[in-house]
Amino acid sequence: MVSLCLLVVFPFLMAYAAVSDILTMTIPNRIGLALVAAFAVLAPASGLGWLEIASHVGAGALVLAVGFVIYLLGAMGAGDVKLAAATTLWLGIGAVPEYLVTTAMFGGLMALGLVLVRGHPLPGFAATWPFALRLQYERVGIPYGVALAASALVTCPAAPLWRLVLAG
Question: What is the C-alpha separation between 11 and 76, in angstroms, rounded?
Fold first, then answer.
């Protein structure tokens, strides 16, 4: 049951965050809260030890603290910071470097894609879609939640919680 929850809850919340960010340029707080709550239930149920859980919590807190500084500098949205911290809670400290590098790669590809798309007018069928118009506008940022979610889904199979649950 724990593995089923793990394989459904985390990917669903990542997809929800990505789609929400594309459509509205926001990541609702309920996604981060759901990630934290689900981790609080699933981590002990999966057999993850208390020291490992504490390590995961420390990783999430570290990413939240660094992300807050990045947010204050105006380089990242608050929803992105909260999603990254909640995701890191699931991945643990050992997966943080891979998660951040993969996120940067996905984010770079998205930025390049948006630069290319923004250089051309929207096709007629998409010209009435509010989210497409928003993404087309150069002063709008990048829906970085997409990169964060994609990176989380790529990184998670190597994370301790996932290896523990999937091995059992």
Answer: 23
